[in-house]
Design goal:
With about 200 residues, the protein is mainly beta. The chain has one helix spanning about 120-125; strands at about 10-15, 25-30, 50-55, 65-70, 80-85, 90, 95, 100-105, 115-120, 130-135, 165-170, 175, 180, 185-190, 195.
């Protein structure tokens, strides 16, 4: 049966996560021992601690979504997150190069949700091979706002407190008419909510 859909009028499905597939545990990052880059290094990549994620797919018809979750050891710390696909992101006086940013403001943490979540859907990662996520701790004098980017700085990153982090991928695939697995026309949302527009 043929069903016509569009991005504005997709078919929406809720598929529960397989409980037999465990989500990775949080790993502690001992950031207080990390030595920030020296002043003589290039400005382009010394404002953030960078995480590299390989998103290359053996099957080019498949796409993945990325979950980045951070649990601070102290609830009063906020963070600035930045990412770029296939390149190291930058946000300083000479370079502003990134796909998206996110502010993790400590006021948004609750007893029920005591960690920050950042989600990059499979439509955004399609066709890319790598993801670089940069993180820096906001200083006490920096205002944390989900609507406004922080002030540009050329200072190398530094962390006063450690945190826990986990990064994992998710996806949803189907067999096409030729019997090949694909994710074409499918967008995976954060709550395992799938939108079909094929």
């Amino acid at each position: 049966m043929k069903i016509n859909t569009t991005n504005d009028l997709p078919i929406e499905m809720f598929i529960p996560r397989d409980v037999n597939l465990p989500i990775p545990i949080f790993e502690e990052e001992n950031m207080t021992t990390v030595i920030p880059p020296r002043r003589g290094t290039l400005k382009i990549n010394r404002q953030f601690f960078i995480y590299y994620v390989n998103i290359t797919q053996v099957n080019p018809n498949l796409t993945v979504s990325i979950h980045f979750e951070l649990k601070p050891m102290e609830r009063n710390i906020s963070y600035f997150i930045i990412y770029k696909l296939d390149q190291v992101p930058a946000y300083n006086s000479t370079h502003q190069s990134f796909n998206e940013t996110k502010m993790f403001c400590h006021e948004n943490l609750t007893d029920e949700m005591n960690y920050y979540k950042y989600y990059i859907d499979n439509v955004k990662t399609e066709g890319y091979k790598s993801l670089f996520i940069g993180i820096r701790e906001l200083g006490e004098k920096e205002k944390c706002s989900i609507d406004v980017l922080p002030q540009i700085t050329d200072q190398p990153y530094g962390f006063l407190k450690n945190y826990f982090v986990r990064i994992y991928s998710s996806g949803c695939y189907y067999l096409n008419k030729r019997g090949y697995w694909t994710s074409d026309g499918m967008k995976v949302n954060t709550i395992w909510h799938f939108l079909f527009a094929i």
